Amino acid sequence: MTTKVAAKRQIVEDEVARAVTDAKIYLLLKHPYIGAISSRMEIVSTDIFPTAATDGKKIYYNPEFFKDLTKGQIVFVIAHEILHIVYDHVFRRGSRIPSIWNMAIDYIVNYTLVKNEIGTIPENILYNEKYTDEYSSEELYEILLKEKKNNSFQILVPLDTHLDGEGDSPCNSDDNDGQKTNIDISVLGGSLTKEEIDNIRNDIKSIIFGIYSSSKKAGNIPAGIERLIEKFTEPKIDWKEVLLNFVMSNIKTDYNFRKPSNLSWIYNIILPSFSNGEEVSAHIFIDASGSISENQLVDFLSEVKNIMETFDSFNLSVGSFDTKVYNVKNFTIENMHELTEYKVKGGGGTDFVCVFDYLKAKNIEPKTLVIFTDGYPCGSWGDPSYCNDTIFVINNNDKKIKAPFGITVRY
Known about the structure:
Layout: H1 3-30, H2 32-38, E1 42-45, E2 52-54, E3 58-61, H3 63-66, H4 71-86, H5 98-115, H6 137-149, E4 162-164, E5 182-184, H7 194-218, H8 223-230, H9 239-249, E6 280-287, H10 294-310, E7 314-321, E8 325-331, H11 353-361, E9 369-373, E10 390-394, E11 407-410
Parallel strand pairs: 1-3, 4-5, 6-7, 6-9, 9-10, 10-11
Antiparallel strand pairs: 2-3, 7-8
Helix pairs in contact: 1-2, 1-4, 2-4, 2-7, 4-5, 5-6, 7-9
């Protein structure tokens, strides 16, 4: 390569790099949920891929491809890769046919971006109004598979390269359709171990939980992602995992994956545990009003004990309430055995406001606030302006009950 050609190429790469930075800033300002994730992802220039790709940790783009895109189209492509990360598309294909899987996940991602007016859709991209983000990737895959068998659609190639982190197809699988559709993730330097895949998934999950509540309050989460996150709190998902992941997202120190939970996230993402010396801090209040049964109180205390046993170190402030807050006590690993002697007090009406008033009076701004209840407050659910990130754990079969802020988790 001559000096002149190299210099010209460097100018192009610098201009594209500035456009990528501008796109990240635009996403932060106009679409904060997507922007918050993009700001935590390294975006790398490379000629390994013809257009763009992601391995779940980084986003890759080819400057020769990006130089011909408008700024709006660059925004779209970066957001496209981010949604592949959010939806765990790199590690979800399994044994499905790559070409059809690629179409399914791209239809869903592109529909979400177009519907929410995120960037400008490039030419020759997979988009069809009937393939909406109301479907899961697996559901749309089955629809497309059926249509393929009926010869009612043509296999199309996605705009970006789809890295295959967990599938069983060979590198550069062509699905017998004559098209190179998937590239094994080992092209970036070797195949990933199960532990490495779990680590990537948990990093993503932590980011999602960490920015969920603030983005939800601002009303800027695309509906498809909102539905995905809400699945965390449906009865078929064990509520303890939701609780622990929310706690995890508020921890400032590092965590490891030494003792992964046997519970799975919605798509087999393993819950990490904390190493020795790490401490989880939370304020927990137990609804002890007259509508709460003795069995429910036992359940609540059992789950507090479960939190203690899950983490190597913790600092939990536990109290009970009806229209007032009673018997607030701090628990650490040193006195966790005293939980069996904890006295739950109450018996009156249910006033969640008293919990928030207590915190305000004590000048406590909890990193994580958890309220165990049956979901029947006499009036208000509390003060979202003081602690919007509240987790309401509801022991009740009425699925219509949902807190107006924070996260609602049901047994």
